[in-house]
Design a protein that fits this description.
globular, alpha/beta, two-stranded antiparallel sheet, 313 residues, 10 strands, 41% helix, 8-stranded mixed sheet
C-alpha cells in the first residue's frame, strides 16, 4: 500500500486537460497475486541489479552528482527510507499539494473497470493503489475481479503503504498485494500478465530507465497500457524560472523544517532536472516497443508534471 492547493498555481493548463483514455484489453491475473489474510509483503527472488556485464567504472547521476552505477540504487534507497514516514509532506512540498490532483487525473485517464489488473511500480505508500480501488468501486461496489499489485524496492515505503491500507479497513482485502521488488528486474511477475502498469514519481530514480521500460513491456498483456506520472519540464520561460527558484530555494529548506532532512529533498529537486524532457521520454517509450497516441504525453500544470502513456500492441 507506497505517497493547500492554490488556484493560481493550477492555472489553465490543468483546467483544460484533454482526455485520452482508452480501455485496456482485460483478462484474468494469476491467482498467486491474490492477498492472504492479513496483508503481508511478498518478496521477489531478487531486488538488486546485477551489473557484472557492465564496466566497473560506469557512472550515472545521483541528482547533480556523478556516482558509480552500482552505488546509485543504495543512495536512492537511503533517500526514500529517510522520507517514507513523511512522504505526503514531501510530495506536498514538491508540488504545493497539487500532486493529489495529478494522481487523480492519472486514474481518470486510466478508466479502470472491475476486471482491471494493475501493477503499480514504485508505489509503496499506496497513493495510486487506493485511488485505483476507489475508482473501481464507483462502477462496481464489490470491486469485482479488480486487483492491484503494489511493488516497491524500499521496505520502508511498503510498510507505510500497508499501514495506510489497514487504516482504510483494507488489511484483509483480496484486491491488493504488496511486493518487494525492483523495477529493473520484475522477476516473479509473469509475462503478459497485467492490464495496466503505472509508475508515479518513481522512474526518474531508476538507474537504467530503458530496463524499466523493457520490463513494463514484458509484463503487460497485448493491449495493455503503460502509464508514467513524473515531474516534467516547464516550457514557459517565465514560469520555469519561478518554478526553479521555488524548487532550489524553498524545497530543501522545507525538507529541513518539516523532516529534518535537507539533503534528501535537495536530491529530489535535482533528480527532476536530470530526467528526460517530455518528447525525449515519449521517444524512449516508443523505442521500447510502445505505441503512443499523438505526442504520447499530456502536460499537467504547465508541464510541472506530465502523464506519458503507451500501449503494447
Amino acid at each position: 500500500m507506497s505517497r493547500l492547493v492554490t488556484s493560481s498555481f493550477l492555472g489553465r493548463s490543468h483546467a483544460h486537460l484533454a482526455s485520452r483514455s482508452m480501455v485496456p484489453v482485460l483478462s484474468s491475473f494469476t491467482a498467486r497475486h491474490r492477498l492472504v489474510t492479513p496483508i503481508t509483503t511478498r518478496y521477489l527472488s531478487s531486488t538488486r541489479i546485477n551489473n557484472r556485464d557492465d564496466k566497473k567504472d560506469t557512472t550515472t547521476h545521483f541528482g547533480f552528482k556523478t556516482v558509480p552505477e552500482q552505488q546509485k540504487e543504495s543512495l536512492v534507497h537511503s533517500v526514500f527510507a529517510s522520507v517514507a514516514d513523511n512522504y505526503d509532506v514531501m510530495n506536498d512540498a514538491m508540488s504545493m499539494g497539487v500532486h493529489r490532483l495529478w494522481k487523480n487525473t492519472l486514474i481518470e485517464r486510466m478508466s479502470p473497470t472491475a476486471e482491471t489488473r494493475l501493477l503499480d511500480v514504485a508505489g509503496g505508500t499506496g497513493d495510486i493503489a487506493l485511488r485505483f480501488l476507489d475508482a473501481v468501486r464507483q462502477v462496481e461496489p464489490n470491486l469485482g475481479n479488480a486487483h492491484v499489485t503494489v511493488l516497491d524496492i524500499n521496505e520502508e515505503m511498503l510498510r507505510v503503504g500497508e499501514k495506510r491500507f489497514a487504516a482504510a479497513g483494507l488489511e484483509h482485502s483480496p484486491h491488493v498485494a504488496f511486493v518487494h521488488g525492483n523495477a529493473e528486474v520484475l522477476d516473479g511477475i509473469p509475462d503478459n500478465s497485467v492490464d495496466v502498469y503505472t509508475i508515479a514519481f518513481g522512474i526518474r530514480n531508476c538507474t537504467h530507465i530503458d530496463r524499466v521500460i523493457a520490463q513494463a513491456h514484458r509484463v503487460l498483456k497485448r493491449g495493455g497500457r503503460f502509464m508514467v506520472l513524473e515531474f516534467g519540464k516547464v516550457n514557459n520561460p517565465i514560469l520555469a524560472t519561478a518554478y526553479d527558484q521555488y524548487s532550489f530555494r524553498m524545497i530543501p529548506h522545507l525538507g529541513q523544517i518539516l523532516a529534518n532532512d535537507r539533503e534528501s529533498y535537495q536530491y529530489l529537486v535535482e533528480s527532476i532536472r536530470k530526467f528526460p524532457s517530455q518528447p525525449q521520454f515519449a521517444q524512449m517509450m516508443r523505442d521500447g516497443g510502445f505505441q503512443t497516441v499523438g505526442e504520447g504525453y499530456e502536460d499537467l500544470t504547465f508541464g510541472v508534471a506530465t502523464i506519458w502513456s503507451g500501449w503494447k500492441l
